[in-house]
């Protein structure tokens, strides 16, 4: 009875965490899907926009997996999924930029050259390069024999650049995302990233001290 | 040795005076001319189509783009100047031909052109305007709307002769 109750409580906790994550990801996407602006955008532009929203959402999943905060996942499986989602994140960013380029080439060329009249473009482009850099670093980690310490500093620094760049980029944009759900998602991404960075930093310090 | 120093000092003094009067000579006419020309805005020329025709109205209308065109220096209103206007609206993209149209300024240098409602595109609701008449230096503007619900947008040109 007691054991059964304990298992039930554990299951409830697992379901609660996953349901909360699902809500955090689905609500901003659903709100954007209801945007009146979609009526005046063609499929390529819409796909580009949603790829951007997906990229922001995946940035909430990444720190949760890296920190092992998602119940029901072993640390090993969590890291494997973290790697796969990293690849999907790169793809989402590529679709986002390519779709915008098809919609208005001069606006994207301006942004890539940091000559855009809109400051949020610069933040987005910085985050994009950081996403590519973090993926490249992950691919070359073995080949370059990067030490765990250097790896951790590099990976966390780039992750912070990605998260901060994406958040400023998203918040400054007047687009299909609904304001409240956008700010809430950005806040969650920030908190999740800050938590995992603090934890990993603490772990690194503890392992460094004798 | 002292003489040389004195000479150097004199040289600096005289040179400084010459420089100062020269600067004053440069600054004074600018002050007299007054109104400075409008510089082109970053991204203003994006999706520009040269030679857009003069139209009564772009598409179905409902939104007003207004502004003035004046001459740099004395600020005299310029009549009969062609201003091209385009934007991402409820009827089409910035790059679509139907989203472009031009209008002429009246005797007071004022232009107004009705066009479809501008909607946010690439992160903010904005219009594009160009003076490309050739008599004056070409200027591209990209004003941003304070609110995407606004029904009008203003932009002003101060043009400098080529």
Automatic annotation (TrEMBL), chain B:
<protein>
    <submittedName>
        <fullName>Twin-arginine translocation pathway signal</fullName>
    </submittedName>
</protein>
<dbReference type="GO" id="GO:0016702">
    <property type="term" value="F:oxidoreductase activity, acting on single donors with incorporation of molecular oxygen, incorporation of two atoms of oxygen"/>
</dbReference>
<dbReference type="InterPro" id="IPR006311">
    <property type="entry name" value="TAT_signal"/>
</dbReference>
<dbReference type="GO" id="GO:0005506">
    <property type="term" value="F:iron ion binding"/>
</dbReference>
<dbReference type="InterPro" id="IPR015889">
    <property type="entry name" value="Intradiol_dOase_core"/>
</dbReference>
């Amino acid at each position: 009875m007691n054991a059964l109750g304990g298992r039930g409580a554990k299951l409830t906790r697992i379901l609660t965490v996953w349901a909360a994550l699902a809500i955090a990801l689905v609500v901003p996407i659903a709100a954007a899907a209801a945007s009146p602006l979609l009526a005046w955008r063609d499929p390529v532009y819409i796909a580009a926009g949603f790829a951007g929203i997906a990229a922001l959402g995946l940035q909430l999943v990444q720190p949760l997996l890296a920190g092992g905060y998602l119940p029901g996942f072993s640390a090993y499986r969590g890291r494997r999924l973290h790697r796969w989602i990293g690849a999907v994140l790169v793809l989402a960013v590529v679709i986002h930029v390519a779709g915008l380029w098809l919609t208005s080439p001069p606006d994207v060329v301006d942004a890539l050259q940091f000559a855009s009249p809109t400051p949020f473009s610069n933040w987005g482009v910085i985050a994009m390069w950081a996403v590519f850099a973090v993926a490249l670093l992950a691919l070359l980690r073995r080949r370059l024999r990067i030490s765990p310490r250097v790896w951790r500093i590099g990976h966390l620094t780039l992750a912070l650049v990605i998260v901060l760049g994406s958040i400023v980029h998203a918040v400054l944009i007047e687009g299909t995302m609904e304001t409240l759900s956008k700010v809430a998602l950005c806040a969650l991404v920030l908190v999740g990233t800050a938590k995992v960075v603090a934890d990993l930093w603490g772990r690194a310090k503890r392992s460094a001290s004798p | 040795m002292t003489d040389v120093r004195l000479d150097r000092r004199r040289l600096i003094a005289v040179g400084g005076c010459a420089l100062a009067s020269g600067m004053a000579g440069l600054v004074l006419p600018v002050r007299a001319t007054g109104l400075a020309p409008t510089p082109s805005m970053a991204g203003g020329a994006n999706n520009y189509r040269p030679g857009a025709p003069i139209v009564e109205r772009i598409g179905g209308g409902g939104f007003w783009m207004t502004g003035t065109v004046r001459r740099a220096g004395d600020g005299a209103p310029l009549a009969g100047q062609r201003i091209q206007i385009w934007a991402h609206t409820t009827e089409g993209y910035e790059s679509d031909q139907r989203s472009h149209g031009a209008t002429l300024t009246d005797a007071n240098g004022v232009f107004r052109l009705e066009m479809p409602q501008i909607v946010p595109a690439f992160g903010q609701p904005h219009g594009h305007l160009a003076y490309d008449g050739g008599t004056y230096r070409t200027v591209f503007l990209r004003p941003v709307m304070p609110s995407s619900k606004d029904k009008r947008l203003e932009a002003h040109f101060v043009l400098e002769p080529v």
